[in-house]
């Protein structure tokens, strides 16, 4: 089947890389990048682009009608830290935006939809180590409970409408091509930029805050392989746990010091993102993803750090 793929939220951290990867696989004209803002430098003039506001039903309907996409990736969202500053806006965008896309995907018979969830769906009473696919979930951020509610909607549309929706609970994502947009795990990207520019960094999370993270190469590969897997292998229609690599800011700093020996790490005493990080898992069990669609991680902490520094130093 000839694909027509619509990526909504193409200017973001995931979108920037996903659009390039999908265009490499399916061809430039088959992938329509879209966002509420004008295209960022990374995807400007590189293929079809549309201005889309997921909260504007008429605008979104027009885009579905114009392209009749076979696949939709809905990446537009407000992340954890910004979500706490703008809670109602985060709920509205993360929830209403999703429901608009689900409804139009059903109306226009979109073959497959991808929507990202997050480790933020877990909360203080979830098991902190090796957090299982199914367990107590009591997220206490607006972002976290909008993602948890979104997972329920995803499964609901699969059951009630037969919509082939697929999802991953991403850990914190680390990449050199685009900046993260207001999350709790953003320190793990900023640190690389500051290490190369200034030789030092002040982390807003404490030295011993362990969080699950993932290199963007792995995240994009996971996303595309989940979307390529035969439908009958996708047993979970809410969202799949993905483990990634768990480390603390101090461990990341030590790894960076292996490449930049003079690198200095400091820590900010109080930051509201610390409480969010403390409510999230420290490590994740992703057995279901491994078993159902053959997921396997490639980048560990040393490999990711080396690749990040090598690529970033060419562009900053
Ligand atoms: C955030 O920190 O909000 C995101 C996430 C883990 O979903 N990176």
Total number of strands: 14
Under CATH, the homologous superfamily of the domain at 5-117 and 137-170 reads NAD(P)-binding Rossmann-like Domain
Query: What order do the helices and strands follow?
Result: EHEEHEHHEEHEEEHEEHEEHEHHH
Strand pairing plus helix content: what structural class?
A: alpha/beta
Low-pLDDT runs? none
CATH architecture of the domain at 5-117 and 137-170: 3-Layer(aba) Sandwich
Rg, Å, rounded: 19 Å
Principal-axis shape: globular
Classify the helix fraction into a percent range: 40-55%
Gap from first CA to last CA: 41 Å
Alpha plus pi helix count: 11
- Amount of beta strand: 5-15%
In round numbers, the mean pLDDT is 97
CATH topology of the domain at 5-117 and 137-170: Rossmann fold
Tell me the strand order in the biggest sheet.
Answer: 3-2-1-4-5-7
Query: Tell me, what is the CATH class of the domain at 5-117 and 137-170?
Result: Alpha Beta
The largest sheet, given as strand count, sense and whether it forms a barrel, is:
6 strands, parallel
Could you tell me which ligands this complex binds, including any ions or cofactors?
2-amino-3-ketobutyric acid
Overview of the structural elements:
The chain has 316 residues and is of the alpha/beta class. The protein has eleven helices and 14 strands. It has a domain of 147 residues: Rossmann fold (3-Layer(aba) Sandwich), CATH 3.40.50.720. The strands form four sheets. The protein has a six-stranded parallel β-sheet, sandwiched between helices. It has a three-stranded parallel β-sheet with strand order 6-8-12. The protein has a three-stranded mixed β-sheet with strand order 9-11-13. The longest helix is centred in the first third of the chain and has 21 residues. It starts with a strand and ends with a helix. 47% of the residues are buried. The site of 2-amino-3-ketobutyric acid has 11 residues, from loops.
């Amino acid at each position: 089947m000839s694909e027509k793929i619509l990526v909504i939220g193409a200017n973001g951290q995931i979108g920037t890389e996903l659009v390039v990867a999908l265009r490499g696989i399916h061809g430039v004209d088959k992938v329509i990048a879209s966002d509420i803002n004008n295209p960022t430098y990374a995807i400007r003039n590189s293929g079809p682009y549309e201005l889309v506001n997921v909260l504007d039903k008429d605008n979104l309907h027009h885009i579905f009608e114009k392209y009749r996409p076979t696949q939709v990736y809905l990446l537009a969202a407000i992340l954890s830290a910004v979500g706490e500053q703008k809670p109602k806006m985060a709920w509205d965008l993360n929830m209403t935006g999703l429901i608009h896309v689900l409804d139009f995907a059903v109306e226009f018979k979109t073959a497959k939809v991808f929507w990202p969830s997050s480790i933020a769906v877990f909360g203080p009473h979830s098991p902190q180590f090796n957090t299982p696919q199914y367990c107590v979930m009591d997220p206490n951020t607006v972002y976290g409970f909008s993602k948890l509610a979104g997972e329920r909607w995803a499964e609901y549309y699969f059951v009630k409408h037969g919509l082939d929706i697929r999802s991953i609970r991403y850990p914190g994502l680390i990449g050199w091509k685009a900046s993260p947009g207001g999350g709790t795990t953003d320190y793990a990207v900023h640190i690389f930029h500051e290490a190369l520019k200034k030789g030092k960094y002040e982390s807003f999370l404490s030295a011993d805050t362990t969080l699950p993270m993932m290199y963007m190469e792995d995240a994009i590969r996971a996303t595309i392989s989940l979307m390529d897997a035969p439908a009958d292998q996708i047993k979970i229609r809410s969202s799949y746990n993905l483990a990634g690599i768990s480390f603390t800011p101090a461990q990341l700093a030590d790894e960076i010091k292996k490449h930049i020996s003079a690198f200095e790490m400091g820590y900010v005493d109080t930051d509201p993102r610390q409480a969010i990080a403390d409510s999230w898992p420290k490590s994740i069990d992703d057995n279901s993803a491994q078993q159902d669609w053959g997921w396997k991680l490639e980048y560990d902490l040393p490999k990711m750090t080396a690749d990040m520094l090598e690529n970033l130093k060419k562009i900053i």
